[in-house]
Design goal:
Length: 495
Amino acid sequence: MRIGFDNDKYLKMQSEHILERIKKFDNKLYLEFGGKLFDDFHASRVLPGFMPDSKLKMLLELKEQAEIVFVISAEDIESNKIRGDLGITYDLDVLRLIDAFRNIGLFVGSVCITKYAGQVAADQFSKRLTELGIRAYRHYKIPGYPSDINTIVSDEGYGKNDYIETTRPLVVITAPGPGSGKMATCLSQLYHEHKRGIKAGYAKFETFPIWNLPLKHPVNVAYEAATADLNDVNMIDPFHLEAYGETTVNYNRDVEIFPVLNAMFDQILGESPYKSPTDMGVNMVGNCIVDDEVCREASNQEIIRRYYQGLCDCKRGVGSKETLFKLELIMKQAGLSVENRAVVNAALKREESTGHPAMAIQLDDGTIVTGKTSDLLGAASAVLLNTLKVLGGIEHDLHLVSPNAIEPIQRLKTDYLGSRNPRLHTDEILIALSASAASDSNAELAMVQIPKLKGLEAHSSVLLSSVDEQVFKRLGIHLTSEAKYETENKVYHKR
């Protein structure tokens, strides 16, 4: 895989910049962490070389100075809001992340439940946290937020919130998803710290949009595509342009809220430390791009992938037409079409020639490998085996898994486990391959090629099962699918 981003440079530069920001205040900085602290696969896709856990490793550079405070909305707890990428509720994700951070040596100080209004589910979660030895705090809904600044910045507003006790100079405020109340939590803490005579500061860490890349740079456009359902729009920061005569990029919500934030800073601190939303940020990602062309191409592919995801979401009944229309517009504005994704045409051509679902995978050198549906294997399983053969220099006609080994597995599926589809899914064929590797050198050779699948592009001519989609995701393959089912005459389709 071609690298477009220097991850080591990023870790060093980002941690140094945050330390500099801490020093500008009373050795106390509340850092709002937007996006994913953990498993940031979007960033790794559009910035090849960026590791999904980069932000986490950066914090490890600061672990002696940092503590983590998780923020979760009581409304999200009450509604059992689900994290789309993981399929678990926000409250469970908080517990998952606490374990993940503690396991690598980061200090998790507490959890703050925001927008609290007596929700029973929030009380139950708070009790559970206490039983687990985790401090829980409550922040309340404030009438007139965010426009009634006099009420907000008073004992009747932020003053009613619990004061979150912290012990480290850097307090990282993060959350399982958007809309959790991270910014409000930071500002509430500034109010309480100021009352205690501590001139704490606030900063914002958002990876995207990248402030020092052009507005229409594919990396920034890919962010718009990723947040199409949130109606986020990248825009020039007018406050920064007016203050410094410098063009920088931010997004609409930060620009729209900045006058309110500035007024709050004035009221809390006596004087705002910032002249623009860009000033508030500490993001150094844009300074660590080492191959712009690679990042542009990767981002263009991400834009197309997001479009396909929108199509598939609509087909499955979980997406909106409005989001899809926005994705179509973004793709057109970027000068892209599905023709810019080589695996699409290859998969569709193979389907046309065989009359059955097909798949294609593109290797790093541009080679495209296809797979067809057969009596033994689905197209996803076939293309995986074919790709491993090409990567390992194994003859195409050679069986990595004997048909005699596949047939008993098929009987198990249909005769004993109640499956109507006898063909092996990707997880099943990989297990069968690993079993064959014990006695077959070619199967063993194929197995050691599996790490090379990471970062490859793939396309399916039909929607895949959730099992196959998850396997491709775990392998690090960037998958898209046509928005159609293998059996279009059915009204129920198992995921």
